From TrEMBL:
Listed pathway(s): Lipid metabolism; fatty acid beta-oxidation
GO molecular function, one term: delta(3)-delta(2)-enoyl-CoA isomerase activity
Pfam families, per the entry: ECH_1
Subunit structure: Homotrimer.
UniProt entry keywords in alphabetical sequence: Acetylation, Fatty acid metabolism, Isomerase, Lipid metabolism, Mitochondrion, Transit peptide
Lineage: Eukaryota, Metazoa, Ecdysozoa, Arthropoda, Hexapoda
Protein's recorded name: Enoyl-CoA delta isomerase 1, mitochondrial
Predominant place of localization: mitochondrion
Gene name of this polypeptide: LOC4816920
The UniProt record lists the keyword RNA-binding: no
Annotated localization: Mitochondrion matrix
GO cellular component, one term: mitochondrial matrix
Length: 280
């Protein structure tokens, strides 16, 4: 695949530049005035995080990082779904080498997004279960549209959120609430998420959500960028280091767990339910 790490200008619209590394599943648009980059996930139908979307996300985050953007806003091109989380097809009857690459890439994306030196915000313009919630909670600020849901629902699927999913969740919610929500596999409505502090603000449209994210990122305009980045890093260093130290172990645990016949059976039933619901 044609992919270069060098930023290339492929289009101009208003005061924004659309940057691309020839990826297909993400776009990066930089506002010339504010220097803020909007990273949009655009994998139909539901922004399921498969290996290719994860690779494109990683490339785009790296691009934004190396381009010294003033901020990163993560959002979706889908009008009702931010991200449906991990693409369950990657985990159901998996192919040996691909599933290793898939989980490794997910680790990479989390390390780059949660550990980004650039300030980050999520404009959550749709449902955001599991891996979608992981991405949103890896950012420093969340603005969500009404009538959607967000949460880590892994236990509802018979799977277990690994430690680093919990780290992102715990960087937003107090331990008692995080633990209960994770054990229940609870999905929160926008209103509930606001009340509990899982999101910071609501907005009535995607444009407003992006504007509110930009306003949050703008609060750092007068803060020394190095001091800000090092402060953020210190808050997050222990979580990041833990995964760095345990990456191989984490991969092996995931592979062992996901290949259990009972887990495969559960995923199959869950997928079937999703497909039946989609046909109705
Ligand atoms: C101690 C050791 C620990 C080790 C670690 C071990 C394991 C950890 C492993 C995994 C962690 C996983 C985290 C995850 O992210 S799992 C994914 C969880 N996601 C979900 O549960 C979301 C499911 N989807 C939905 O709820 C809805 O689809 C949604 C609300 C997002 C959208 O609803 P809508 O009505 O608009 O769309 P649908 O008709 O439901 O879907 C359209 C289409 O898309 C398919 N689909 C939906 N979600 C997924 C998905 N996550 N993966 C794959 N495919 C998905 C759906 O089946 C429809 O397909 P089709 O019928 O049109 O073919």
């Amino acid at each position: 695949m044609l992919r270069t790490k060098v930023l290339s200008l492929v289009a101009r619209s208003g005061p924004s530049r659309l940057m691309s590394t020839a990826t297909k599943l993400t776009t990066v648009e930089v506002n010339d005035k504010t220097g803020i980059a909007t990273l949009t996930m655009c994998r139909a139908p539901v922004n399921g995080l498969n290996l290719e979307l994860l690779k494109d996300l990683k490339t785009s985050i790296d691009e934004i990082e190396s381009n010294k953007s003033r901020g990163l806003i993560l959002t979706s091109s889908n009008a009702t779904i931010f991200s449906a989380g991990l693409d369950i097809m990657e985990m159901y009857n998996p192919e040996k080498e691909r599933i290793r690459a898939f989980w490794t890439q997910l680790q990479e994306v989390w390390l780059s997004l949660y550990g980004s030196s650039v300030p980050t915000a999520a404009a959550i313009n749709g449902h955001s279960p599991a891996g979608g919630c992981l991405l949103a909670t890896s950012c420093e600020y969340r603005v969500m549209l009404p009538k959607f849901t967000i949460g880590l629902n892994e236990t509802q699927l018979g799977i277990v959120a690994p430690k680093w999913f919990m780290s992102s969740f715990l960087s937003v919610l107090p331990q008692r609430q995080a633990e209960r929500a994770l054990n229940q596999g609870r999905m929160f409505s926008t209103e509930e998420a606001l009340q509990i502090g899982l999101i910071d603000e609501t907005a009535t449209s995607k444009e407003e959500a992006v504007e509110k994210c930009a306003a949050f990122l703008g609060t750092f305009a007068r803060v020394n960028p190095l001091a800000r980045a090092l402060t953020k890093q210190q808050f997050r260093a222990a979580d990041l280091q833990q995964l760095e130290n345990e990456r191989k172990d984490d991969l092996e645990k995931f592979l062992f767990f996901i290949n259990q016949p009972a887990v495969q059976k559960g995923l199959g039933i869950y997928l079937e339910g999703l497909k039946k619901k989609a046909k109705k």
